[in-house]
Design goal:
This protein is an alpha+beta fold. Helices cover 24% and strands 23% of the residues. The longest helix has 14 residues, at 112-125. The structure holds tetrahydrodeoxyuridine. Residues 39, 42, 44, 46, 62, 64, 71, 73-75, 96, 108, 110-111 line the site of tetrahydrodeoxyuridine (THU).
Amino acid sequence: MTNRQIVIDYSEYEGLQELPAESRKLMDAAIAATETAYAPYSNFHVGAAVLLADGTMVTGSNQENAAYPSGLCAERTALFSASAQKPTQAVTALAVAGRDQKGRLTEASPCGACRQVLAEYETRYGNKVAIYTLLEGGRIRRVEGVKNLLPFLFETDLKPLA
Ligand code: THU
């Protein structure tokens, strides 16, 4: 038996003003996208913004449904939309922000299913994705690569057919 550890690397920025211009733009877009959420059941509004290799930004927000599991998180809405519109462009960064029932900006860290979906894009395009999460108090966490959010993620040696 061997005990092992996994190291998770992340950085924290004190606020939006500390972010480099490009990631600031991305987080601003994620924050703006919280306004497009359809979240009448949870009243928790999430915005996400995806940056593609050609510089395109694609936003998404959570879309809920009366049949609860039929709804979709902001992150997957943005990622699937980006992939559907620009399938040849690698995903390079993702920003996520939450807005609570009182309209205050708050933390929204990607759920497990969205992390698994992100992992697929890292494999598909062969690069790590920089993931920015808005935290309580306006700080921002950055991780480089989904394995910092989802160690031991599901991987197979099955390859896409094309
Ligand atoms: N949600 C997201 O859209 N992204 C996250 O990172 C966490 C949760 C959504 C799902 C649901 O519509 C609402 O937030 C409350 O869970």
